[in-house]
Amino acid sequence: MLEEESERLHHRKAIGELVKQLIPVFENSTEGVFVYLDDDHKACNELLADMFGYTPLQWEEFSPFSHLFSKESRDDIMATYYEKIIAERAPAELPITGIRKDGSSFRARLLMVPISFNGVLFALGFVKPTGA
């Protein structure tokens, strides 16, 4: 139990420090940006949160993360996350359908790349609406 709490604290600290390092990317990207470890350890920029109809804090607290996407996209995103980011440590790009807070949907392109920070492997994601 104590080890689990220590790991959670390490992850929380790592994501906080990583977000600080990524401030120029978060603030200047023309795309929505997020970092993701798991449902409890994720962060996004204002642009991404707005795409989904949330504030960044609301988006970060949303759980499970996968419910921000259509069923088909959920399956693709999670399979890609585990196969490409975790297993292969390789980037991946895929079309997705996001679900906004109001229930409406939007099509986008998701690019995820693995990024290691303080011994923790995160997915760094970029989301660009496609309008299709």
Which range best describes the helical content: under 10%, 10-25%, 25-40%, 40-55%, 55-70% or over 70%? 40-55%
The proportion of strand residues reads 25-35%
Radius of gyration: 14 Å
Structural class based on helices, strands and sheet pairing? alpha+beta
Number of strands: 5
Give the N-to-C terminal Cα separation.
47 Å
Choose one word for the global shape. globular
Compressed to H and E, one letter per element, the order equals HHEEHHHEEE
Largest sheet, strands/sense/barrel: 5 strands, antiparallel
Q: In order across it, which strands form the biggest sheet?
A: 2-1-5-4-3
Report low-confidence residues grouped into runs of 5 or more: none
User: What is the typical, i.e. mean, pLDDT?
Assistant: 92
The number of helical elements comes to 5
